[in-house]
Each structure stands twice: as structure tokens, then as C-alpha cells.
């Protein structure tokens, strides 16, 4: 399918912020070619530059060469990260620590593996079933209440959903850091767990988990998974259309920030809008850059681990753009987008509230 070239008002958030060619798509591709042809070699400064890519994919979305030449910059950058790691060069300390944590406890936060399902206490969720929830590391360890609110919402909609006994990190942090072997280990573990659970559908909450399970696992393990991968916004949209979810009125201005991975990699941008527009009396306002043309919050590609200031500057610019329409509430469908935009709102001393989509819906549930 040939994807339309959209009016982007920019191509690369990092280049837009730092203004040097090697931070943009064209510069990064030139570096990759130099490495491939033996004209360049890695050093610490170059490696640090290559690890500032957000993986947001806007460059590939608007590049007129993409459809015939497949110049997919994020995949090129990921290959460079793999090359750096496998050749034994020193990757950023934050990434090394994340990899060590995943190796030890199957999550990047150094939290105990046995604590992963603590959020499910007293929710009486079956360990198995046709539909399995895969919350991911960030929600499981850092935002457990969001999962609990979502499960409560789904139960009210009379949706049967279970969990697996031994879910681990999806592998995205390892894959992006360059450790493909560790990512494959995580993929094998999770696929086996989903099979043990009898999953026909796996519902993810994080766009990175969604893309990794759906697109990367077949390549990592060498075969297609025998379960369908869904993002929670698709599930919520179906429940709304079946009239199994209804909401109280919310007569205020609301906008939706599209997560890059979900919109551009996953082609999921209509589902969350259908959900939000179903809320009575809501005034839904589109931001200038949205859907396939969305602008990154700065939270992608593990960049906040390496340079929080850079990510926060990008998030602040995005938050100011979202606020242009005088919206009172920003809703998104990614834990990292929610986190970065909330931090930016606080930094800018805005009154604008930022919500993960199911948290927002829980406030309005009838």
C-alpha cells in the first residue's frame, strides 16, 4: 500500500531541536552508509549521536523514496545499534543498565520479577483464557493503578480477559539497544507463556509492546505467532460500538495525542478517536499534527533514559502545540507519551490535564 505524503510541518523532532545534520534522517543515513563502506568507524561521540534517534518514524512516513526504496530510517538505526552492540562497542550507560536488569529480572527497572503481577491482587483474573492482557513493564511496575482501572472497566463491559503466569519484558528495550539475542529470549518466553495460557488474542496497553509482539516476534522467533495482537484502543472502540461501554457527559475541550508507534507503525489512530467522540457533549479538537503526521512527545527510542533534558524539551514543544486550541485535557494511549507530556505540563506550569486513555474513561464510566 502506498501511504500518502502528509504535510508534516517538520521531519525530525531531534533535528528540529538540535539543528545539526547528523541528528536528522539524512545525516543518520549518511553515517550508516559511511560505516557500511568502511569510511567511518564508531567512537563514543558518534555512538551517542546514533542513540538519540526517537524511532518515531516520521522521516520514513514523509520520505518520497520510502515506497520504492524502503528507506526506513528507524530500522536502519536499529541495525546500527545491533552492529555497535555485537562488535563490543560501549553503548550508553543507561542502556547497559536496562539490558542488565532485563537479563536478571525480565524488566528494565530492576524490580523483582515476582512483583510483576502484584497489580492483579484481588481482581480475580484467571491465568489463562482466549483473551490475555499484556500490560507491559511500565504499567506493571510504575503505573499499576492504571491496569486495575482498565480491568475494572473491562469487567463492567462484561469482557472476559485473563493474564499469563510468567509474562516478561516484551523485548523492545533490548531490541532498540542492540541486543537482539536478549530480545529473542524475551520473545520466546512470552510466546510460550501465551500458548500455555491458551491465548487467541493478546491485548497490549503499550504501543511498543504492540509493535514488538505483532511485527518483531515473527522475525525474532522465525514463525508467526498463533495469537492475534491487539492494542487496547481497538478493544475499547469495539466495546463502544457494541454499546457495552457508556460514559457520562464531558462538556469540555479534549484533544488526542497520537503515539508515534501506534499511529505510524500500527496504523491505529481512528479507534481512539471513535472512543473519545462517543463521550456525550465532548468537544473533540484535533491538534495541528496528528494521525500519521503526529509529532513525537520525546519519549521514544529510550532517549529519556539517556537524555531526559532533550526529551523534556521535545515534550514541552509538543505540549505547547497541543495547548494551542485551548484544550483542557490531553488524552493519549502510550505510557511514555502520558509521562512525558505530564512532565512537560508541569514544567510549563499549565493547567492542562494529561491522561492515559483508560484512566480518562474510568473517570466518566457510567
Describe this structure in words.
By secondary structure, the chain is of the alpha/beta class. It folds into 3 domains: 13-86, no CATH class; 119-237, Rossmann fold, CATH 3.40.50; 246-364, Rossmann fold (3-Layer(aba) Sandwich). 50% of the residues lie in helices and 7% in strands. It has 19 helices and 7 strands. The protein has helices spanning 13-18, 25-36, 44-50, 58-62, 66-69, 73-86, 93-105, 137-142, 144-156, 172-177, 180-197, 207-221, 232-241, 260-265, 270-277, 303-306, 308-323, 335-347, 357-364, and strands at 131-134, 201-204, 228-231, 253-257, 283-284, 329-332, 353-356. The longest helix has 18 residues, at 180-197. It is globular, with a radius of gyration of 20 Å. The N and C termini lie far apart (40 Å). Mean pLDDT is 94; it is low at 1-5.
Question: In oligomeric terms, what are we looking at?
Answer: single chain
CATH architecture of the largest domain: 3-Layer(aba) Sandwich
Main sheet attributes: strand count, strand direction, barrel closure: 4 strands, parallel
Give Rg in angstroms: 20 Å
- The CATH class name of the largest domain reads Alpha Beta
Helix vs. strand class: alpha/beta
Amino acid at each position: 500500500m502506498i501511504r500518502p505524503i502528509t504535510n508534516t510541518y517538520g521531519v525530525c523532532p531531534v533535528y528540529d531541536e538540535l539543528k545539526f545534520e547528523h541528528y536528522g534522517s539524512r545525516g543518520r543515513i549518511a553515517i550508516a552508509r559511511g560505516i557500511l563502506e568502511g569510511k567511518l568507524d564508531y567512537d563514543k561521540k558518534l555512538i551517542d549521536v546514533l542513540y538519540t534517534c526517537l524511532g518515531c518514524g516520521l522521516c520514513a512516513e514523509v520520505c518520497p523514496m520510502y515506497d520504492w526504496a524502503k528507506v526506513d530510517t528507524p530500522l536502519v538505526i536499529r541495525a546500527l545499534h545491533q552492529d555497535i552492540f555485537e562488535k563490543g562497542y560501549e553503548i550508553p550507560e543507561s542502556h547497559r543498565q536496562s539490558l542488565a536488569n532485563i537479563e536478571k529480572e525480565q524488566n528494565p527497572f530492576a524490580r523483582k520479577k515476582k512483583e510483576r503481577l502484584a497489580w492483579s491482587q484481588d481482581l480475580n483474573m484467571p491465568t489463562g483464557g482466549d483473551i490475555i492482557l499484556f500490560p507491559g513493564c511500565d504499567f506493571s511496575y510504575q503505573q499499576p493503578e492504571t491496569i486495575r482501572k482498565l480491568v475494572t472497566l473491562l469487567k463492567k463491559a462484561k469482557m472476559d480477559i485473563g493474564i499469563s503466569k510468567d509474562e516478561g519484558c516484551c523485548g523492545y528495550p533490548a531490541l532498540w539497544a542492540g541486543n537482539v539475542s536478549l530480545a529473542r529470549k524475551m520473545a520466546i518466553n512470552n510466546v510460550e507463556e501465551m500458548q500455555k495460557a491458551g491465548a487467541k488474542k493478546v491485548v497490549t496497553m503499550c504501543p511498543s509492546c504492540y509493535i514488538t509482539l505483532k511485527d518483531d516476534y515473527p522475525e525474532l522467533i522465525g514463525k508467526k505467532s498463533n495469537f492475534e495482537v491487539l492494542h487496547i484502543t481497538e478493544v475499547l472502540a469495539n466495546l463502544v460500538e457494541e454499546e457495552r461501554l457508556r460514559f457520562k457527559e464531558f462538556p469540555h475541550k479534549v484533544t488526542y495525542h497520537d503515539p508515534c508507534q501506534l499511529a505510524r507503525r500500527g496504523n491505529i489512530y481512528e479507534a481512539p478517536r471513535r472512543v473519545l467522540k462517543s463521550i456525550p457533549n465532548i468537544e473533540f479538537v484535533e491538534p495541528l499534527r496528528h494521525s500519521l503526521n503526529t509529532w513525537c512527545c520525546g519519549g521514544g527510542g529510550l532517549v529519556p533514559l539517556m537524555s531526559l533534558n532533550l526529551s523534556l524539551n521535545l515534550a514541552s514543544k509538543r505540549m505547547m502545540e497541543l495547548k494551542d486550541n485551548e484544550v483542557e485535557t490531553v488524552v493519549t494511549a502510550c505510557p511514555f507519551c502520558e509521562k512525558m507530556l505530564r512532565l512537560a505540563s508541569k514544567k510549563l506550569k499549565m493547567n492542562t490535564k494529561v491522561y492515559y486513555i483508560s484512566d480518562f474513561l474510568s473517570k466518566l464510566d457510567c
